[in-house]
Design goal:
Structural class: alpha/beta
Number of strands: 15
Distance between the termini: 17 Å
Largest sheet: 11 strands, mixed
Radius of gyration: 21 Å
Strand order of the largest sheet: 1-5-2-8-10-9-14-15-13-11-12
């Protein structure tokens, strides 16, 4: 097991499973090695809200048989764990006492995985930086002083630092893919209904935004993403195959912007890698991303702002007041995370105010879904940057992500949520930024039901983006 973030296949979950099968080590020694790594990195990274050492050691004595038997994993703090409370990192929200594991957690356990830690989150899981008043800030293992992203940032930092082999995250506007890209990992956001969300917080029920929210794995490699997805999904993907003959969609005139030169370089190289792997490139316009983005912001504000205010009401039921919070912040006595405060300031400016407008926005986005899925069919994958920035210093990401209007840094990320497209980010290790050592994330997306071909293409891309010494 490598003790630091590094590319390659030699130390991923699949390789560790082979080591367990060969008898080179057992589940107990594997758990102890990861517990030692967690103890070593916890003071500097602050990635875990809790380490379940006693339970993990007990499970490792007799690991449950299954495709993940003996593997140490983390679970985002917003998933229910039996006998524990769920807080969303908030001091205001009333903790939710959990009687049973979330459905996805139960599937991991049934497959033999051992939950070793709970991953830190932004307050209410509503920011692209992982920090909150209850547990504090999580650092980036690749670059101390920079954000690990969010909202599944704690789990990404745990995987990247070698504390666990995989993390269970959730993604409504990039919450799996952003931290995975920032930490040099593979993050897979399936379609919204691919993995059961019972016991995941927030529970969005019949809200349209629930069709954007997905559970998914954060891993070191694409083959691990396929392994964990096969356990978590209602319909596992087909066995790995060659991507030769798939269509590579080059999104013509797509509105995105990069702050870092390494990202467009990695993107251009990725097109060549995929063509060499046998994909047939065709240029297509995906549609009116600007109109879709504006509708996205209006719908999200309309649906989620009341949910956030209810969560912040606290155990006494006193209504959360943004004006009162603003006054408290003036004297240094704010009760919520700065990123959440900024989001609550922005949301009323962009939210739709009438149900009729919301209905028209939903109709627009549903038409976009039909349009893009027709383009992709069952054999198309679209190549996009995961996000238009490398991991910035702490405090910067909220300013970059929380702004009115179409945000070209985020358009590729959010597109895959509101159009409900499975998407996977792959680290471009060969094109690390020279000054920071950070790794660009390159993203592939496909239509729901085409997860197998999507992961086939991602595996070919991954091999081409590894440094030569780590390749294969």
């Amino acid at each position: 097991m490598r003790p630091d973030p590094a590319p390659g296949f030699a130390h991923d979950a699949t390789a560790l499973l082979q080591g367990l099968a060969d008898g080179r080590f057992d589940a107990q020694s594997l758990i102890e090695r990861h517990l030692a790594r967690l103890a070593e990195t916890r003071p500097s990274l602050n990635a875990a809200t809790e380490i379940l050492d006693a339970e993990a050691r007990a499970e490792a004595l007799r690991p449950r048989p299954g495709p993940l038997s003996g593997l140490p994993v983390s679970v985002k703090e917003t998933y229910a764990l039996a006998g524990r409370s769920l807080t969303g990192g908030s001091l205001r929200m009333t903790p939710i006492e959990c009687d049973a594991d979330a459905a996805a957690v139960a599937r991991l356990r049934a497959a033999g995985a051992i939950v070793l830690a709970r991953g830190n989150v932004p307050e209410l899981a509503m920011a692209a930086e992982t920090e909150n008043p209850r547990y504090g800030r999580t650092d980036n293992p690749l670059a101390p002083g920079r954000t690990c992203g969010g909202s599944s940032g704690g789990d990404a930092a745990l995987v990247a630092s070698g504390g666990v082999v995989a993390g269970l995250g959730s993604d409504i506007l990039g919450s799996i893919r952003i931290p995975s890209a920032f930490c040099g990992l593979v993050g897979f956001k399936p379609a919204a209904d691919a993995i059961p969300k019972a016991g995941m917080w927030p529970e969005l029920g019949e809200l349209f935004a629930n069709s954007w929210l997905a559970a998914g794995p954060i891993t070191r490699t694409v083959r691990d993403a396929r392994l964990f997805y096969s356990v978590l999904a209602d319909r596992p993907p087909a066995a790995p195959a060659s991507p030769r003959g798939l269509r590579l969609i080059h999104a013509r005139d797509f509105p995105w912007h990069s702050r870092d030169g390494a990202i467009p370089v990695a993107m251009e190289a990725s097109r060549g890698i995929l063509r060499d792997a046998g994909l047939k490139e065709e240029a297509r316009s995906l549609g009116d991303v600007g109109r879709w983005s504006r509708a996205m912001a209006g719908i999200l504000g309309y649906e989620l702002l009341p949910e956030m205010r209810r969560a912040l009401a606290g155990p006494d039921g006193r209504r959360f007041s943004l004006a009162r919070e603003s006054l408290r912040r003036l004297v240094g006595r704010g009760t919520i995370y700065a990123g959440l405060f900024h989001l609550l300031l922005l949301a009323p400016l962009v939210r739709y105010r009438r149900s009729e407008t919301v209905a028209r926005g939903i109709e627009l986005i549903e038409a976009g879904r039909r349009q893009v899925r027709e383009i992709l069919a069952d054999d198309g994958v679209v190549l996009l940057p995961t996000i238009g920035t490398l991991a910035p210093p702490h405090g910067v990401m909220n300013r970059l992500s929380f702004r009115p209007g179409m945000n070209r840094l985020m358009t590729p990320t959010s597109l895959c949520n509101y159009l409900d497209l499975p998407a996977v980010t792959v680290p471009a290790w060969r094109y690390r930024d020279a000054s920071t050592g950070l790794v660009p994330g390159v993203m592939l997306a496909a239509a729901p039901g085409a997860e197998g071909p999507l992961l086939d293409a991602a595996a070919a891309l991954e091999r081409g983006l590894l440094p030569d010494a780590d390749n294969r």
